[in-house]
Amino acid sequence: AQSVTQLDSQVPVFEEAPVELRCNYSSSVSVYLFWYVQYPNQGLQLLLKYLSGSTLVKGINGFEAEFNKSQTSFHLRKPSVHISDTAEYFCAVTQGGSEKLVFGKGTKLTVNP
Amino acid sequence: KAGVTQTPRYLIKTRGQQVTLSCSPISGHRSVSWYQQTPGQGLQFLFEYFSETQRNKGNFPGRFSGRQFSNSRSEMNVSTLELGDSALYLCASSLDMGYEQYFGPGTRLTVT
Does A90 touch chain B (CB under 8 A)? Predict the structure, then answer.
């Protein structure tokens, strides 16, 4: 069965600092990988996705992620964060041919002034 | 294009009652999935419908059921509500398998 591990439940950073949110997955078959963001009292918004091709994926709001098959990782990065990036971030995986998203437990990013 | 809409946004029910939640997907999307989000269990997949057929189902008891209509709108029903059913229920739509899923704002269900 697929599983997703987000290694940090909370990440505090200062504004304009870089940030990396870590995500590891386990699957024996090829997968599609996603990062979603959830602001308070809202649904999930897709930040970026990896389906195939280039392992470096760029998303919205200046975020990017790198797919590393050998390390089964899909870490999310941003070179300079803003206060408005404060939210909860979810890494998710789905096996090709299935719509079932398996989510990690989430990482709460808090950007402090 | 309008996004995924869910109604109602908030709901308070009593144990033992049943509830129906509604989801309208993005126009043209034929796949609708439902997820339950709780602080303890996180985000868990409930089921997915495509062209009125359930294609996939998560590990939830039979009290949780759903359906999809010919216009792709979907409903989920929870019967005999338990306190543990209190959660944010999220609906997501996509064109088909392999395409990204777009989420609605969710329905916050509180069971007292």
Answer: yes
Q: In terms of Cα–Cα distance, which of B50, B61, B60 is closest to B92?
A: B50
Q: d(Cα A47, Cα B78) in Å, to the nearest integer?
A: 31
Evaluate if residue A97 carries a pLDDT over 70.
Answer: no
CB interface of B with A, residues 51-110, below 8 Å: 55-56, 58, 90, 92, 94, 97-98, 100-106
Residue pair A55/A62 in contact (Cβ under 8 Å)? The answer is no
Residue B1 pLDDT exceeds 80: no
User: Would you state the pLDDT for residue B92?
Assistant: 95
The reply to whether A44 touches chain B by the CB within 8 Å rule is: yes
The closest CB to that of A43, out of B55, B100, B105, belongs to B105
Phi-psi region of B108 (alpha: psi -120 to 50; beta: other; left: phi over 0): beta
CB A47 within 8 A of CB A59: yes
pLDDT tens-place string over residues B68-87: 999 999 999 999 999 999 99
